[in-house]
Amino acid sequence: MLIREFQSADEEMKKIVLKVVKQVVSTEGVEADYIKTALLPDYFKSFWIRRMALDKRSTKQLAETTFELARKTGGGEIIGRIVDDLKDENEPFRKMTMEVVDKIVASLGVADIDPRLEEQLIDGILYAFQEQPGDDNTAVVNGFGTVVNALGIRAKPYLGQICGTIKWRLNNKDSKVRQQAADLIARIATVIRTCSEEQLLGHLGQILYEYLGEEFPEVLGSILGGLNAVVS
Question: How far, in Å, are 127, 129, 137, 211, 216 from residue 173 at the CA level?
Fold first, then answer.
């Protein structure tokens, strides 16, 4: 009955259906295999669409329900189905995907994410970060930081590419873009150290030092925050 209601055109009904799905899947008797085969294909087809990212209430409910599905079936299962949407051309949809990935990885870790999905995930978060408009809030930086920190030593092969992107963004004419890049350094400095990439860390510190002439106070604050993380 619930799956039939996925097709409802009524927006309020859709929110209620999402709420009920969240409650049902968290129930003890509902098995993960059943959710994977009977529920997930229709769920993503009906709900994981751009339109849902336009309304705050819908986005919030969709994020909560999707997270509950991940808790039942495993984070890798759900991330595998949404990872490509990190590269969607629609910015609110990318942001919604990033927020859900952030929530899943922060709570469930990356143990069930295989090397192929790991590559897709890094590729996706790099794209989302590069395409992030300057006026956007911290969703993408937070998600990026969460994923890299959760990967830990597994992030080593990607650090060169990540730091190259950060350097490029630090040079952007938009002050908010520069601020995001400095904030990301602060979020991932520990991982760079964990991966024994001290030379790379020193290089980032040198670049931040050269940007201490920054004219915008809030960007300078982020540059100092990034420097602090590097020195620590």
Answer: 19, 16, 18, 13, 12
User: Quick one: which of 197, 193, 196 has its CA closest to 229?
Assistant: 193
> What pLDDT is stored for residue 137 in this prediction?
64
Residue located via tokens 């937070």:
142
Residue 107 CA to residue 156 CA, distance in Å, equals: 22
CB-count burial class (<10 Å; 0-12, 13-18, 19+) for 5: middle
Alpha-carbon torsion, ordered 81, 190, 139, 206, to 10 deg: -120
pLDDT digits (tens, 9 = 90+) for 151-164: 999 999 999 999 99
Task: Report pTM.
Answer: 0.94
pLDDT classification of 133: cutoffs 50, 70, 90? confident
Q: How far apart are CA 157 and CA 160, in angstroms?
A: 7
CB-CB neighbours of 6 under 10 Å: 17
Query: Both ends of the chain: CA-CA distance in Å?
Result: 55
